[in-house]
Amino acid sequence: MMIRTLIAVVAAVLFGCLSAQAQIDSSLLKTPEKKDTIPHSLNMDAIYNRPFLQLGKTPVSIGGYMESNWQYVKTSGITVGNQFQFRRFSLFVASTITKHIKFLSEIEYENDPTGDPGDAGGGSFEVEYAALDIEFHPLINLRGGMIVNPIGAFNQNHDGPKWEFTDRPIAMTQMLPDTWSNTGFGLYGKEYKNHWMFGYEFYLTGGFNDSIIDNTQGKTFLPAAKSSVNRFTESASGEPLYTGKLSVRHDKIGELGLSYMGGVYNTWQIEGAQVDYKRRLSVYDVDFNTTLPTHTNIITEWAWIFVHLPPNYTQEYSSRQFGGFIDVVQPVYRGRILDWNNASINLAVRGEYVDWNVGTFSSTGTRMYNDLWSIMPAISFRPTPQTVLRFNYRHERARDITGDFIGATIGTTAGFSLGLSTYF
Prior knowledge:
Elements: H1 2-15, E1 53-54, E2 60-75, E3 78-79, E4 83-98, E5 101-110, E6 124-137, E7 140-148, H2 171-175, E8 181-193, E9 196-205, E10 241-250, E11 254-264, E12 269-270, E13 273-274, E14 280-291, E15 297-307, E16 320-337, E17 340-355, E18 371-384, E19 387-398, E20 412-423
Antiparallel strand pairs: 1-2, 2-3, 2-4, 2-20, 4-5, 5-6, 6-7, 7-8, 8-9, 9-10, 10-11, 11-14, 12-13, 14-15, 15-16, 16-17, 17-18, 18-19, 19-20
């Protein structure tokens, strides 16, 4: 019932916003005085659409952001009390090497227990992005290095200061791999005409490995692939992961993105000898964002995962998964607060649903569950568009594969979080 309700809400948003204005997400990072000169952009531009500081007369610019939270949460009546979390610190370094050639890198410290398990245990430093762009034509640009795979919108546009919520969407972090980046090469381009903008991206990169079905989670779990220390230099399958995205935006409607990611994930040969069949995975993703005439900002994204499993695997490992989220953000005040001339106060709510085992039991024909839904109301204060203080409440329910709300980690989760995030 919950999933049908969420899908109905998304459908209503997609078909009911024909008179809407363009999204404000990226424009919030600019000052009002510069709005007329803001270039038209898509989610694919988020990697560069950040505040940077020029270092004197050098061709190098730097920037970054940080996130930190307080949290008090109970699951099935059990709590670990007050928790203070330093989630992320990212540093951007960009350089225009010469005309039409530019480089961007992002180095990140991350310690987020709500994301993939590899982030826990004291956190880690890693290079999240380091790529060279060569522009031949606005529609033909070469990108190579360590890139962010453009599966969906959140994976491209995930910086903490852009969001009113302390936690990242569950489906985009615990079903899809959060900030999924790989070594590879590809092409991208975009074109703007009248009120329309079109963009595309296509990349060949390294990909997943056997850990997505051989992990401590005991289920099909794509984020497990991030824990491989060799994934930036070796491919388990020896074959490329294909990732492609098409985006279209109208200034008065919003942006729609359709993306696909897929390829062989398993080690099917060793030293030239075939040891297994090639097993593929495919991910389909649709994202949409808009701003209504009431300045209500709506962002939604949904993904479908299909994985070819070995025949001897139990049904706890699913061949199909589905999930996504919808955010609704309503500014209630914009103007001067204390000494901040461009401050804002926003009310927001996020609805989420994830099903890690889509389908039925082969023996009984009854439905498998292993699903989760969550609703998170929020209030945020932005003294400037680049800094946000946010207060959230989460109510979440999870079921095991049989549909029971049982166990220490399965059942009702409820709690509060207070956090801040800022670009610098």
